[in-house]
Fold this protein.
Amino acid sequence: MSEFLLPTLIGVLVAGLLYRRIRRLFGRQRVTTRKLIMRITLVGSLALLFVLMPGGGVSTRILGVVLGVILAAVGMATMKVERQEEEWFYTPNKYLGFVIVSIILGRIIYRLSTLSGLSTSFNGDSGVPESLAMNPTGRVLLLTLLVYYGVSNAGVLRLCRQSGVPPRHG
């Protein structure tokens, strides 16, 4: 019984985090400067770590960054930023949100299917089981999502500041 408890708790936690992430991709969102800066810093740091991480080719890194910037540019061009009373809100493009959700869920489903047949062979470069080592497609997708979130959050902050009164800090 206890052998299923930890995976179940982790599954519930991951499902809750995914729900929060997906909810932020659709509908009107309140702009909060502190949260945007925190997200930009966290996601930017993670993206930098993945760019500097050994292994994988330079082309996968460049592709991930370029795709992330393109997605963010499309998102910024189609995003609505508005001020109501003293608060700022933004509404992301729902179609782009659907694409992002599809990438995230598709990658999770793919990864779970490959982990279910976890092999015992090891990757000679990193000493990590081959089924856990990130393949080039995984690197591109992860870097694309990290760059997208970092650039789009920075863009929301910039758009609000250019529009006049900065958003609330709380």
Remarks:
- Residues 119-124, 126-133 have pLDDT under 50 and may be disordered.
